[in-house]
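Q: I have two molecules that I believe assemble together. Could you output structure tokens for the complex as a whole instead of separate predictions?
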Amino acid sequence: MSDDLINIKVNQKEIQVDKNLTVMQACEIAGEEIPRFCYHDKLSIAGNCRMCLVEIEKAPKLVSSCTMPLMEGMSIITNSEKVNAGRKGVMEFLLINHPLDCPICDQGGECDLQDQAMYYGFDKSRYKENKRAVDNKNMGPLVNTIMTRCIHCTRCVRFATEVAGVPELGMLGRGENAEITTYLEQSITSELSGNVIDLCPVGALTSKPYQFKARPWELKRTDSIDIFDSVGSNIRVDSRAEEILRVTPRTNEYINEEWISDKVRFNYDGYYQQRIDTPYIKENQKLSISNWEVSLNILKDKLKTLKPLALIGEHVDLETGYAIKKFMSNYGKDNVECRTDNHAILESLDSYRFNTPLNDIENSDLIILVGTNPKIETPIINHKIFKAYNNDAKVFNIGGNISLNYKTEYLGESLSDLNNENLIKALKKSTNPLIIIGSAFLNKIKNIKTLKSIFSYADKYKVITKEKNNLNFLNPYASRVGQLIIGNTTNNLCEPFSNLKKDNFELVLSFGSEHIANDQFNNCFKVYFGHHGDDGAMGSDIVLPTPLYTEKNGTFVNIEGRPQEAKKCHNPIGSAKEEWSILKKLSDELSFDFIPNTFDQLRSELFDKHPILSDYHEIIAVENSTSITPDIEFEDCKAEYPLSNFYMSDVISKNSITMAKCVEEIISTPSLLEKSA
Amino acid sequence: MSSNHPGLSNNFSRSGEKFSWSKDNLRSIKNIISKYPKGREQSAVMPLLYLAQEQNNNWISIECIETIAETLNMPKIRVTEVASFYSMYNTRPVGENLVQICRTSPCWLRGSNKITKTICRETKCEINDTSDDNKFTVVEVECLGACSNGPMIQINNDFFEDLDEESTKKIIDNIKEGKPNVIGSQKGRRSSENA
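A: Yes, here they are, computed for all two components at once.
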């Protein structure tokens, strides 16, 4: 390894660093902060802002550190007069055309240019000519543009091309006429487009919904988890008083890196629309306002006589799930179901989670998408596949002929197309193949033999080996993996929801599951615990308000089996009560055994029962499954994708005005490109 | 001011007509692309823009850009970037004769201002404008590289050098009347030999 290390000096301090680094990265290791605008860890190096100038001994001029490779014996100086003067000069040029509108700029207070101007800027302008003005560009309903503020770092252009995989942004013109724009000013079509707002070092690209809402120092920061897909992206929820004003990503190199999807970033206005803020009871076919005492009394009486079934929705945290399980155990077994979409599983964890650590997806050289549309279901995983694709991985697709932002080879619509000759040939050549089985097939599998065959197939073609398991199962719901780990499901491995013996149940308790509105429960008494009024609540006999994930603490297990905590940001809306406390009250009145008095007790009891969940941020380790059948046989099932519209996948995003605008402007409006074709 | 120059505008427009390569151009494109290594076909974007401009009445329409992007299998915005960067790709329609007047120091010292005035008077259009009969578009440009023969202008693909007001007027008149012009020096010298 010592071959890769070289000796350099940073401000006379001797250090050893990897020879493949740049001068800027070496300075960072040495603890010297280098100002920069265009350089970004996750993007290619552009070297066009010139802010990161440093002095290198024996070099006649200042050097831009982000583009400069290291050499043995290099002596770098970052704090000399000359460096300072150079950076001041660059800053003066950057500010020539930058408007002095900080007081009305949304970036104010968290602006790289503002911060660095404090160190390197002059207090007066020597520029007597007119500043240039640039027309604002349309980039869609999410990204607000004030292009006069742009300093042409091209971070957004590189992001769109390299990370989002939609080469739609570019810099037109040159010199003083340079302008950043999307092609013909169309909306950006990426599910990750909101990230350009964080990337922009100035206030040129800002959030449209957050425009003129708040200053960063007024906001309370709460660490949370994205529950709108199963990836579990780390997010930061910024709120003021009892209102969430924006959502931004937290860096987690193992999961979302620095990105989040547009859905979680922008659907927060839906948190406050159509909220169930008080209990409702159905009278004469109409829901009317009630109170907790009356509604819980009715529910208690029903629970005394009727046999209940609990359905678990897509946003339910582990603690709530555990409380539900504990409560329902008083009524026997097999009466809780989270797989309301007929998700087929085997018993073991590796049959329903994403077994490859998300960070390793990019190392694969062959990816087979089987009945999954990662672009819509999990944009972060789609980005990782795009990374692999850029590393020359080949991507095959089986199921629907979906359109993705990279090239795939379509093999056919049925599972048995896994036996396609081309695919087998490619699999045999591949050194690190990866299979992703999506809900489009998993929800349709009727025979468990098919699922076992998939394992045998993976085993046969070295997708599963002793060292690695690259057979992945992908579903889009944040609650699913966790709920399955704590066993909130019935015995049926295939078609669990269709196989529910409806005659066995007379009372359905739905915890945020819209499936309560299904015809099969027409003769049951229905109770809906939830936060948004939609089909589920409308069809129920009692509706009880519960808090949203930002209004309570909760644990979620992401798709790769990594427990993470979403923290409470503000108090619940209206008279909403946490599910466990409602169940606690009912248990007390029905004299059931339900010990936890507080949320913390509930959580520690959950962790005692399932110690694997207590290790936050670590992937749960399991041994590779051994349930392998000798013969490989795939049943004939037709792919049916769970989501068709990224922006409207659940009750919350359906109620978001921003998401509605996205549907209108990005999905429904045929782009100019298509019109001309 | 410079933003009005047809080659320096960032705004592209549609011609409203489908743009598809002529047979000759298809042949040249094949030849051009073969000069670049496999997988680097996009390097041919500049020659293709030139061909498209030639075929499309001396300007690049959105249709041209889309056809080029399709031919070279590259994002449309990348073609747009290149087309907007270089001033010799016109982003809006120009007249039949694009008159480019050199205004850089050597030509200017030799009296390019007078040439400009003459041309504007004779063609009845302002700098960066197109004449009403669509015969001329007049633009001022920086050095065209014929400094020793200044003042000079370029009309479409031809250079006219060693100009004075009289010879300039004659050139414009000839174009109006459809008569041929002498290309190069108007004083009869060969290339840039001593006058």
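A: One point stands out. Residues 672-677 of chain A have pLDDT under 50 and may be disordered.
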